[in-house]
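Aim 2 progress. For Reverse transcriptase domain-containing protein, the working sequence is reproduced below.
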Amino acid sequence: MLLLPPIGHKFTWKHGRLYERLDWCIVNSYWKDLFPMCKDEIYWKQRYRVAWLKSGDKNTKYFHHKATTRNRNNLTRSITLEDGSVVNRLVDIEAQFVSFYSSLFTSQGRDNDAINIVLSGIYNTLAPDQVLLLDKPYSEDEIKNALFSILGEKAPGSDGFNAFFYQKNWSTLRTEFTSAILAILNHDSNISLIIDSVIVLIPKKKNACKVRDFRPISLCTTMYKVVAKVLANRIKPVLDSLISKNQSALLSDCLIFDNIFLDNEVVNAITNRKRGRIGWATLKLDMEKAFDRVEWSFVDAILKCVGFPNCFVNLILRCISSVTFRLLINGKLSESFPFFRGIRKGDPLSPYLFLMIAERLSAAIRVYEEQRTFTGFAICRNAPIVSNLLFADDSLLFTTVNDTSCRAIQDILSIHNHATGQILYPFLTQYQPYGKNKVLQ
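Predicted structure tokens for this construct:
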């Protein structure tokens, strides 16, 4: 007898704090052969997730129509170029995307002077016990925990196997799977065999018509996700000691709402300030293609500066730099192409690496605060000075409205650009003045 795997909510009955599944279905192998379509429902569930909850799990004509319509709407039929011309042949569309991302992923080079200025504002480093935690050999339990923490139905990478396949067949694949992962983590085996990615282009807005209107999401293989997840799980416990209180995303003891509340308090204090002739302003900064422009040389410099062991740094650099990409456009894969900078959206490591990169903007601001060329805002006389707040990849600056602060901001952003590779996105960057002197050139 076989137990049919349930689909949907894990529990169907609740009483107080007790949860239970009451409707179990047990069949024999003859029944499963007689009704093979029960397997097809999972495929259609992946293609049309939302309606699955609303319309049930019937393999109906309506369900096929909805899933197919969604797939048709996601087709890219034409691309508008910078000069206003339009291309609509699939070959030309593919060429435009490959050209754009090949250029985007090309390094601008290493600027040691800018990197050194940013690193001079770093004060938090790893403690000796944290270094030992990162440097110890990897275990089979870490690999198992990483694998089973990945959602089974996440889209697979180029190998076609999602995490559910490995989780379901863990008893059979355990020895070979863990041996392959441990060979990479402990013995520097070749990671390029599992690291190639497929980039899916997700429209940022309805009726996206330009190459820039699409967000690249990397579909990584499950084996690579496990490697990255193991490394991310080691970074998490030490991250709090490396990130300042200005950042409120992905930290264990912080909520992103913390900085939202603090921002409201600061703006309210600035607005209601009745004394003084100094004008104040807030600058909301948005970096264009923030993940895709990160220079690997800067990642290397940061990790070594804060005290990560060399073997751990080298493993992370192998994870982010050994990749070749292929674009998935209208269901067709492009030719593979290398890239020389950037961290992938869809990589379990990327959010934690990006936090440390975004933290360096605070470090650059700290350098100019110490030189007294950039001034933050204090709500009251004995309150701490707030100069900037970070919301993952978004930044908010508080500054006085004068020529000195203006030049300092320009220098800070220039240094940040040359060190990290990130550039400001002017269309989403906003400036809001307060007080008497409201003109900031």
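The chain has 17 helices and 16 strands. This observation will guide construct design in the next reporting period.
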